[in-house]
Amino acid sequence: MAESSDPKVSVLFVCLGNICRSPMAEGVFRSLTKSNPRIGEVDSAGTGAYHTLDPPDYRTVTTLRKHGITDYEHGARQVHAGDFEEFDYIFAMDAYNFSDLQRLQRRAESKGKKTKAKVMMFGDFGGKSKGEEVIDPYYGADNGFEEVYQQVTRFSKNFLEEVINKDAQK
Ligand code: 4NP
């Protein structure tokens, strides 16, 4: 069992626009960890700034609601250098997000920032193959959002099981 004395872990979810996939991941993860004393700050961001301050896409909101998550609110924001100092884990939704994050982290380090973030594909916790991608549902059919929901739920549960709960048992 996680104890309140264990160190807290902070998590940032990242996609391109921060209106579809990463808010879905944040909403699901928040709901799964509401009373988990091991979880600190949880946020989401985009590698792009196209949608800054926009709310999540209505299809993300509808999908979360369908699964009983009705209290999630977010304004889109772009990833910034300070995120690599602040968050323990930064999870990319696809390979483009991942390489953009690696480049941003290298740039922050070259400017003397001490970055602690472990940048990973969220899909490394997919339980299938390493680096399972969450495909951008923005231009696709509505059921793409349900697929995103199912993936980020599976990844969140595996991350909690494999990292957070395991850690707490040490
Ligand atoms: P997301 O989806 O990265 O899952 O938030 C997108 C939303 C909007 C755009 C791209 C991706 N866009 O180019 O506007």
Automatic annotation (TrEMBL):
Protein keywords: Cytoplasm, Hydrolase, Protein phosphatase
Q: Which residues form the Phosphotyrosine protein phosphatase I domain?
A: 9-162
Where located?
Cytoplasm
User: Cell inner membrane among the record's keywords?
Assistant: no
| Cellular component terms (Gene Ontology) | cytoplasm
Which Pfam families does the record match to this protein?
LMWPc (PF01451)
Tell me the domain of life: Eukaryota
Q: What is its main location?
A: cytoplasm
| UniProt-annotated catalytic positions | C15, R21, D136
Q: Quote the catalytic activity from the record.
A: O-phospho-L-tyrosyl-[protein] + H2O = L-tyrosyl-[protein] + phosphate; a phosphate monoester + H2O = an alcohol + phosphate
Record's InterPro entries?
LMW_PTPase, Ptyr_pPase, Ptyr_pPase_sf, Tyr_phospatase_low_mol_wt
Q: Name one GO molecular function term.
A: protein tyrosine phosphatase activity
- Please state which protein family the record places this protein in: Belongs to the low molecular weight phosphotyrosine protein phosphatase family.
**Protein name, as recorded:** Phosphotyrosine protein phosphatase I domain-containing protein
- State the organism of origin: Cladophialophora yegresii CBS 114405
